[in-house]
Structures are given as structure tokens and as C-alpha cells.
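Pasting as-is:
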Amino acid sequence: MPLRCASGVLILKILLLTLMSGIYSRSTARKPKAIPVIYDVGVCTDKKHHIEIYNVTTIMDEWGANYVTADILFRKGMKNTSKFVVIITKCTGAKSPNLCEYYLRWVWTAAICRLIPTRGMIWSPIYDTFEPPYTCPVPPGHFLVRNATVDVDAAMALMPDKLYKYIWPVEVQLYDEHGEMIVCFVATGEARYAKGSTGRPS
């Protein structure tokens, strides 16, 4: 009889351990998340502006998310920013004239120097990587962005269409206090769902 009781207790312990192990493994399983995939970054070639972007490199974290490091040269500074423009194009399958169409345009013309550092914006993970920090007024000179990316969750909250179905060429423009375009750069990317572990490149 004592042997049967001991065997029963042992079986019960094994069952409890198995159940707890299953619960733990489910709770720690990697959940899908939206990640940015960045294909290219460069300056506008069809407009006059005053920046250069060079030494562009891209790395990938364990999720497959892309991070960009690049040197940016401001040939001309800005005492104030009078206009901030984002132009978004939507492409189906590939970046090609016959597969892409104008999608939307965001324009800000007030309090831009307070808007740019606002937390939780699509561009916040870019702003946070500037060395030296990007602040108004913006002096002429050299900046480095290190492991810059975009906030896909913020983008998904603002975009009417599903991000992961398309490729997105984006153009960004910044104008100085006289209305002259100082910054004009373009980037192409898409959003994907992936499983992986958290972590950011160092």
C-alpha cells in the first residue's frame, strides 16, 4: 500500500511538472511582430536641396528587422523649420513605375521643431539615433545616424491600407525659415510579420 501511494504521488508530480512546462513554454513563445525591411536610402536626385547621405549600411536583428547607419552632411543649416512634408507611394510587388501609385501626402507647417522630437512618431527611432542630437536650430555640418529604423506600429495606426501588402517608397522634405528646401531624402521599405527574440543591434 505505501508503495502504491508513493507511485501515485510520483505520477501526480510528473503530470504537474508537464502541465507547468507546457504553460511556461506557451507564455514564453515568440509572438509574431511587425518589422521594418528597408531596401534603400538616399537623397532626392530630382530636386535641389542641401544634404548629402553616404556610407549607408544596413544590418538585421534576430527578428529580421532592418537598421540603417549613415553619414549625413548638412551643407546648409536651418534656424527654424517652416515645413515638413512626407510623400508616400504605394507599390504592388516591386518598385516599378507601372506597379506604383501616389498614395498620400502629409504636410506640417506649424511647431515643427516641437513635432519632430515628439515620442511615438513613425520617425522617432530615426530621431533618437542622431549623433550629435538633432535639435533646432540645425547647424551645417556632419551628423551620424546609427541603427536607425522606423516605428512600424505607429505607421500601421496611421495608414488606411495594410502595410505588409505593399512596398512603400517615401520622400521626406524639410524647409528652412525662408521656405527653401534643405532636406530631401528618399527611402523604400515594407513591413513584414516575423517571429524572433527581442533585441536591438549594438
